[in-house]
Design brief:
- The structure holds 2 protein chains of 2 kinds.
- By secondary structure, chain A is an alpha/beta fold.
- Chain A has helices at residues 16-22, 26-34, 65-77, 86-90, 104-109, 125-128, 142-154, 243-251, 257-263, 266-270, and strands at 5-10, 36-39, 53-59, 62-64, 78-84, 118-123, 133-135.
- A 5-stranded parallel sheet of chain A has the order 2-1-3-5-7, sandwiched between helices. In chain A, strands 4-6 form a two-stranded antiparallel ribbon.
- Chain A is globular.
- Chain B is of the alpha/beta class.
- Chain B has 4 domains: 1-135, Rossmann fold; 145-316, FAD/NAD(P)-binding domain (3-Layer(bba) Sandwich); 321-378, Alpha-Beta Plaits (2-Layer Sandwich), CATH 3.30.70.20; 381-559, Rossmann fold (3-Layer(aba) Sandwich), CATH 3.40.50.
- In chain B, strand 21 (460-466), helix 17 and strand 22 form a beta-alpha-beta unit.
- The longest helix of chain B has 21 residues, at 111-131.
- Chain B is globular.
- The chains are: A alpha/beta, B alpha/beta.
- At the A-B interface, helix 8, helix 9 and helix 10 of A face helix 12, strand 16, helix 13, helix 16 and helix 17 of B.
Chain lengths: 294, 559
């Protein structure tokens, strides 16, 4: 019996999701024993993507025309196309450049550098082509990535929850459990500004802007369990729910709005991972109506 | 889902400005029945509608013509709705399209645009009727017991009437009501009669601690010098609408309107002087200090009659328009718990998931908006229906810059109705490219709806909210403010001019404020390229359509 084939295609990203495959250690060895990796940036021989592959993992966002071409090739070749990580699923961190409109390229690289043609805005691969499986996270943990691959290879259902991170977070809520017109904290503080972090208490109640409520579960509350507020890399729980807009909706009655506006870059925080999947994926200008998501 | 559209010409008033048959053309493709009546409240109409429901197996109905408020406030209109429900159409699948006060009367001079706007509002009603889920209704025999708050002359007269008819009455007073009942100048004998009646209970120096439930089945906890007393009553009569302690304690649990001085207000001082927006709560219309005895007795009679009409029936139906929960999505973040002004949401200690205590839920939708995962929805104004309605309105075939008005049912919506009278007086309408969408409370406005509106091509978004201290849901307006202010930073960061999003403070009778808000908004959006956001200083000269200029002219008059 031939072994299933697997390929990895990287688009515009940081390759961090590839690291989550490599960091699987024993799981990686196991994976290599059941699949044939036919094309991958991890493979020094740089074999091109074959015409047909059982599973193609895509990592990164569409940031250049070259990315788009690779993505379309991957879709054509793949029996099962997997969006690995938040860039592939929602557009990811790189999507923040969509807030700087067309001049991002010149602003960053100047006029002379030789480089690939950068697209005017970043797109989420999962919105450009149909993907079969989404594994959000920046990057998804090795355990999550390998569990998803094993489920795919074994033909079993991928058990990914659609609740928010609070469901996985063990921190205790006190003030949030009481209805009130008051905010749960007088101020919004940065982690380093806290003299002491209560290791058991909900981070929102300590005045930290935690994206947990607006973020899809699946990471096992990796950050909040080590006293770091959720940054929202799991993306929204529903495709049609803007993570950032829901942050506005949910946080407005929890954290002081004035402080949120002045002390935190709300847009930068709330749209950090999923701006290209939002209702206005890029800066709107009078002549680029097509930027708006259909 | 067979849909029936029943439209009223409102005795010719719709036809004067709208080509009703043309407006109904689009929706007729999806409706099983489209029937136009000269007037919906004429003899034989109800029977005709019932026949259609039965013959066609209709399970969704859109009533086209009068304002949505008419359907809740007029006895005859309410009766027609009840009849439709009794014929098997779910309460939540009966929608209304306000073609009278918000189209025909306010666009007397632009038949084509008024007709297009009417078509759009009819489509929105069709969306609501066909896509909203059903709500459960439960019937129960109303308790024939009444809690009267404040021992006044009116309270005693009303109590006497109720006691005579076999009701049990509890009279609670902030002071010593049982003493003052018999030592006042007027109505001494009535006071003594009530005091001696075996079914009357007086509770002095009382405060309201807690309350829940609805018409026919309220539970109220009172703090008294002798401890906490719990009363289970069918109705509540507020005899001291001016006593702000009672009013604010009531408002912490039930929906009661207040005026500028914080006094409880009835639905309508002329037609419904004793009724409030909560069908189980009545007020004694305020009388001046110098009111003569006859006036006091008349006010008490009106209140007693209002209670009697509600509580003397064998069965009252309560529709559970509550916020629903999808337990597969809820992660227990408690955003809903924090935001609910009535304390109706709680996190179940065992499951860690959110629950709604239905007896406390007033269906304002604040929890739905605050829920970041979409585990919540408001049955009476579902998320998907709201989004679809925004897009439907954006597609209205009207010229000129488009503005969507999110109208809070407590203030902006009735104010828009009130504006119809001003328009009739001044003779010229406002731009038909203002497209209204009713929301149950300012707190129901999701940031997503504003973004969807801009995305769908609206040039301006107006949000109407109750003045401070006036929200039925206590802080729906405050929460909305907080959200909108946060949203502004997000809009600016994304190149969307946040000046095109306006909040209007308004109260229900302020038609003039409503019209002024339109003048200001159209003056602003008239200068923008339709359906696009601005970037940098793209100033486009006023290209503008007549509606905007007429609005500007009206603005001149107003200022």
């Amino acid at each position: 019996m031939t072994r299933p084939t697997l390929a990895i295609v990287t688009l515009g990203g940081c390759d961090g999701c590839l690291m989550s495959i490599v960091d699987g250690h024993e799981a990686l060895v196991e994976l290599l024993s059941v699949v044939d990796i036919v094309s991958s940036p991890l493979d020094a021989s740089h074999r091109p993507l074959p015409e047909s592959v059982d599973i193609v993992l895509i990592e990164g966002a569409v940031t250049t025309e070259e990315d788009r071409a690779h993505l379309l090739e991957a879709r054509t070749a793949a029996k099962t196309l997997v969006a690995l990580g938040s860039c592939a699923t929602y557009g990811g961190v790189g999507g923040m450049r969509n807030l700087v409109a067309d001049d991002a390229e010149a602003a960053v690289y100047g006029a002379s550098a030789s480089r690939p043609q950068i697209a005017s805005f970043v797109e989420a691969p999962a919105l450009v082509v149909d993907v079969d499986v989404e594994i959000p996270g920046c990057s998804p943990s090795p355990e999550r990535t390998h569990a998803a691959l094993q489920a795919l290879l074994g033909g079993t259902e991928l058990a990914e929850g659609r609740r928010n991170l609070c469901h996985e977070c063990a921190r205790e809520k006190v003030d949030l459990l009481d209805h009130s017109a008051e905010f749960v904290s007088d101020a919004v503080v940065a982690l380093m500004e806290l003299e002491e972090i209560d290791a058991k208490r909900c981070l929102l109640e300590q005045g930290l802007l935690c994206m947990g409520p607006m973020t899809r579960e699946g990471c096992g509350a990796a950050c909040t369990s080590v006293n770091v507020p959720c940054r929202g890399c799991g993306g929204p729980s529903r495709r049609d729910f803007e993570q950032g807009a829901k942050a506005v909706d949910a946080l407005a009655s929890v954290l002081p709005a004035g402080a949120l506006m002045h002390m935190e870059d709300l847009t930068g925080t709330a749209y950090r991972y999923a701006l290209p999947s939002s209702l206005f994926p890029a800066m709107t200008t009078a002549d680029d109506e097509e930027v708006r998501r259909d | 889902m067979p849909l029936g559209i029943f439209a009223s010409r409102c005795a010719g008033r719709i036809d004067s400005a709208v080509d009703l048959d043309e407006a109904l053309r689009g929706v007729s493709e999806q409706a099983a029945v489209v029937r136009v009546f000269e007037d919906l409240f004429a003899p034989g109409v109800a029977a005709r509608i019932i026949t259609d429901i039965e013959n066609e197996g209709l399970d969704a109905v859109a009533l086209v013509g009068p304002s949505a408020d008419h359907w809740t406030r007029s006895v005859s209109a309410h009766h027609l709705r009840d009849t439709i429900e009794a014929a098997g159409v779910n309460h939540n699948r009966i929608a209304t399209a306000n073609l009278l006060e918000q189209v025909a009367l306010v666009h007397p001079d632009d038949r084509q645009a008024a007709t297009a706007k009417a078509a759009s509002l009819i489509n929105v009603a069709a969306i609501r009727a066909t896509r909203a889920g059903t709500v459960e209704a439960s019937g129960s025999t109303p308790l024939r017991t009444v809690l009267v708050l404040g021992v006044t002359s009116e309270a005693l007269v009303a109590s006497q009437r109720l006691l005579q008819l076999g009701f049990e009455v509890t009279l609670a007073d902030r002071g010593d009501g049982s003493v003052t009942a018999t030592n006042r100048r007027d109505l001494r004998a009535t006071g003594a009669w009530v005091l001696d009646h075996p079914s009357a209970t007086f509770i002095d120096r009382a405060e309201m601690l807690d309350g829940d439930g609805w018409l026919g089945d309220f539970r109220v906890k009172l703090a008294t010098p002798d401890g906490v007393v719990e009363k289970h009553v069918g109705g509540i009569l507020l005899a001291r609408p001016d006593q702000t302690e009672w009013v604010s304690e009531l408002r912490a649990h039930f929906r009661v309107d207040v005026d500028d001085d914080g006094r409880a207000r009835s639905l309508d001082p002329v037609r419904h002087p004793a009724e409030t927006i909560d069908p189980g709560i009545m007020v004694v219309p305020l009388r001046g200090q110098d009111a003569i005895e006859r006036e006091r007795v008349a006010a008490a009679d009106a209140a007693a009659m209002a209670i009697l009409l509600r509580l003397s029936s064998d069965e009252v139906t309560h529709s559970h328009d509550v916020s629903s929960i999808d337990e597969t999505l809820c992660g227990g973040c408690a955003s809903c718990v924090r935001t609910c002004a009535f304390g109706a949401c709680y996190i179940d200690a065992e499951t860690g998931l959110s629950h709604v205590e239905e007896r406390r839920c007033r269906a304002c939708g604040k929890c739905v908006v605050s829920c970041p995962v979409g585990a919540r929805d408001l049955l009476s104004a579902p998320h998907d229906v709201m989004v679809a309605s925004v897009h439907e309105l954006a597609a209205a075939e009207v010229d000129g810059p488009k503005v969507i008005g999110f109208l809070c049912g407590g203030c902006g919506y009735p104010a828009a109705d009130a504006a119809a009278e001003d328009i009739v007086e001044r003779g010229s309408g406002y731009p038909a490219s203002f497209l209204p969408l009713r929301i149950p409370c300012g707190g129901r406005l999701d940031a997503i709806y504003v973004l969807e509106a801009f995305r769908a091509g609206f040039d301006g978004v107006s949000v109407y909210r109750c003045r401070e201290g006036h929200c039925h849901n206590l802080i729906g307006n405050l929460d909305m403010d907080r959200r909108i202010n946060l949203l502004r930073t997000v809009l600016r960061a994304r190149g969307i001019d946040d000046a095109r999003l306006r909040i209007v403070d308004i109260s229900s009778a302020e038609g003039d404020v409503f019209l002024k808000s339109l003048d200001e908004m159209f003056e602003l959006v008239g200068g923008h390229v339709p359906s696009s956001a601005t970037q940098g200083a793209t100033v486009v000269p006023l290209t503008s359509p007549e509606p905007a200029s007429s609005a500007a002219a009206a603005g001149g008059d107003a200022s």
